[in-house]
Predict the structure.
Amino acid sequence: MILASVNIDPGTKTGEFSQSWHKTFGVGSAFLLLRKDLLSHVEDVHDTIGFDYLRFHGILSDDVGLVQYADKNGTELDEDCLNFTNVDAIYDALLDLEIKPFVEFSFMPKYLASGDTQVFKYPSNVTPPAHNLQWKSLISLLVTHWKHRYGIDELNDWYFEIWNEPNLINFWTGTQAEYFNLYKNTADAIKAIDPQLKVGGPASSDGRWITPFLQFCSNEGVTVDFISTHVYQSDMPLGGTGFIPGSYALDLVSRTRAEIEQSAFPGLELHFTEWGSTSSPNDQMHDTANQAAFICDAVTSVYEQVDSFSYWTVSDIFEELGLPDTEFHGGFGIETVHGVRKPSFNAFFFLKQLGAEICEMKLDDLPDGVKLFATRTSKDLRLLAWYFKDPKAKIVPEPATITLRVEKTGILAHQDLDFSILEISKEHGNPYAAWKAMGSPRNPKPDQIEDLKQFGEIEEEEENERGDATQDDEQLTVDFELEPESVKYIRIYKG
C-alpha cells in the first residue's frame, strides 16, 4: 500500500478552470448523423456533459450526395449540380439540438477529384481537385446556401476548417503546396461571402505544418482566423519515457501555441479538433476505467492554452473501418453502439461538475500516475483524484491511500463539513467489466443492454466505504483509497 497526502486551501485561488475542454466534440462522419440512434447519442452527451460545437468528416463525401455531376472540362459548378437534401437534414438536426457546426470541408467528391484514392470504408476520396475552379465554386455555393437557409448571423458563429490531416499520405495524396493552394481557394471563397466568417487550418496531425502554413498565409495574404491540429498519445515518438497522460498533449499544445505567437498572426485561436489516447478505433483502453483517468489528466493539463479540445468521439457508431459488430470493441466513442455510457463518458461528467476557480494544493509522496485537481464554487470544494496505469507497464502498481486535508478557510471557514465521493473504477461506473462478466456477448439482448446501461450509471459510495474522516475547527481530514485505473470525484460542503 502506498501512502500519500494532499493539503488543500479553499481560501487561496491559483487560477481559473477554463471550459474550453468541452466546447467541441467529434463524431465520425456526416452521413451517420442521418441515423436516429447516433443523433440520440449526440443529444445525450450534449444534454449531460454540454458542448457547443460538433465536428465530423465527410460533408462533401459521395454518400451524402451533395455533388450530383460536374463538367469534365472544369467549368464552375452551379446549383443544378448540387443536391442539398442530406446536407440540410444533418445541419437542421444539429441546430434543432442547439449545436453549432465546426465544419470540416472533406472529402473530395468523385466528380471533382483528380484520382480515386480513398482512406475509409465509406466514400472518402483524398485526392486534390482536378480543377480548382470547380472546388472553389462548390465551397461558394454551399456556404451561400447555408447563408440563405440559416442567416449570416448564425454562420458567423460557425468555424470552417479546411480538410483533415493533410500532412498524412492516408488523408491527402497531394503535396503540402497543393494543400496550401486548396486552403487559399477555400478561404477566398468563404471570405467573399462574408469577411467575418471564421476560416482556419491546417487540421494537421500531431501539430505538423503549423509554421509553414502560417508563413504561406502571411506571404500570400491569405486570411487565417484560427489554427487547428490534432493530438493522440499514441503519436508520441518512439524512444519516449512511457505512456504519460497529459504530458505529451501539454508539450504539443505549448509548442503549437509558441509557433503561433512567433508568427505573423499572434493571438490566433487554437483548436485541437481531435484528441485521444490512441488513433486506433479498436484499442481496448477506450472501453476501460483507465481511459477515464487518461481523460482527466489530459484535460487538466492543457485547458489553459486551447480555445477548444475536441474529444474523438461521442459514439461508437463509427465506420472508418466498417461499422462495429460488437458492443465493446475498443471504439473511440464515449457511448457504445447502443448508447451505453462508458467510463470515458463518466470522466467528462465528473469534469463538468468542477468549479470555475482552482484552489491551492500541496502534494506529498504521490506515486507515479496519481494526481489531484481541486476547484471551488461559491458554496463548496470539488476535486478529482485519479490513478492512471501505464498500459505498457509490466508491473501492476499498488493501490494508494490518500490522506486529504482540507483547511477550513474561505468558503469553508468555521463550518462543520461533510463530503461525498463518486467513483469510476473496475467496479463502479464501468459497464465494460459487466459486459465481460456476461460472457462478452457479441450482440447483447435488449434486457442485457438495459443492464449494461445501469452499470454505466454513477452512484455515491456508501458511508462505510468512503474512508475515515475527522475534523476540528481548523481542518477536515479524509483518508480514502485510490485503486490503479480509477477516478474519484469528491465534493466537500457545509454539513
